[in-house]
């Protein structure tokens, strides 16, 4: 947890998650700080759903103690999962949140580093935070919505 985040006057804490509204314009921007033991995708989805943020983009840095990434295999139209059961740095996590068939979908891509500096990446399926994940989330125009792409076999953003 960032020590200063709770001291700011409009910071809040819900579901064991610290957050602060950084910009309250037409495009709201939030800083969200996750703590050890929290599952990143679940917490990001909960945050968006509780605030009815139907379209947004996010970036994050931090670390995970356990991570599952996926590689989309077009031949089977599904993700091949790769598990990492060790402490790894989150060098970059970027993604979006959209709604598909009234369900919130978090789509994130991640680059992780092991202790020796080797990097691995893919679609973030699951990540257990340790000790922190610092997220900046910005609302997007609501017209960003997913529709099923028959060729790819997955819902993709259509504009």
Summary keywords:
159 residues; mainly beta; 60s Ribosomal Protein L30, Chain: A; 8-stranded antiparallel beta sheet; two-stranded antiparallel ribbon; 1 helix; 10 strands; 7% helix
Account of the 3D structure:
The protein has 1 helix and 10 strands; from the N terminus they run E-E-E-H-E-E-E-E-E-E-E. The chain is mostly beta strands and 159 residues long. It has one helix at residues 40-50; strands at residues 11-14, 17-23, 29-35, 56-73, 78-84, 88-100, 103-113, 119-139, 145-149, 154-158. The strands form 2 sheets. Strands 1, 2, 3, 4, 5, 6, 7 and 8 form an 8-stranded antiparallel beta sheet that branches. It has a two-stranded antiparallel sheet with strand order 9-10. Mean pLDDT is 88; it is low at 1-9. The protein has a single domain, classed as 60s Ribosomal Protein L30, Chain: A, CATH 3.30.1330.
Work out the helicity level: under 10%
Structural class: mainly beta
Mean pLDDT across every amino acid position:
88
Order of helices and strands: EEEHEEEEEEE
- How far apart the termini lie comes to 37 Å
Rounded to the nearest angstrom, the radius of gyration is 16 Å
Number of helices: 1
Number of domains: 1
Largest sheet descriptor:
8 strands, antiparallel
* CATH class placement: Alpha Beta
The shape is flat
Q: What is the CATH architecture assignment?
A: 2-Layer Sandwich
CATH topology assignment: 60s Ribosomal Protein L30, Chain: A
Low-confidence segments, given as residue ranges, are 1-9
The total of beta strands comes to: 10
CATH superfamily: Hypothetical protein, similar to alpha- acetolactate decarboxylase, domain 2
Strand fraction band? over 45%
């Amino acid at each position: 947890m960032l020590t200063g985040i709770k001291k700011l006057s409009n910071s809040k804490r819900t579901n064991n998650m610290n957050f602060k509204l950084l910009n309250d314009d037409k495009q709201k921007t939030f800083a969200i700080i996750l703590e050890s033991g929290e599952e990143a995708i679940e917490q990001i989805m909960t945050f968006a759903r509780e605030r009815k943020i139907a379209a947004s983009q996010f970036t994050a840095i931090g670390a995970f103690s356990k991570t599952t990434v996926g590689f989309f295999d077009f031949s089977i139209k599904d993700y091949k999962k790769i598990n990492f059961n060790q402490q790894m740095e989150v060098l970059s996590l970027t993604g979006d949140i959209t709604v598909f068939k009234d369900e919130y979908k978090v789509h994130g891509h991640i680059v992780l580093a092991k202790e020796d500096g080797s990097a691995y990446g893919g679609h973030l399926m699951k990540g257990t935070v340790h000790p922190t994940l610092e997220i900046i989330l910005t609302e997007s125009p609501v017209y960003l919505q997913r529709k099923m792409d028959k060729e790819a076999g997955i819902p993709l953003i259509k504009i």
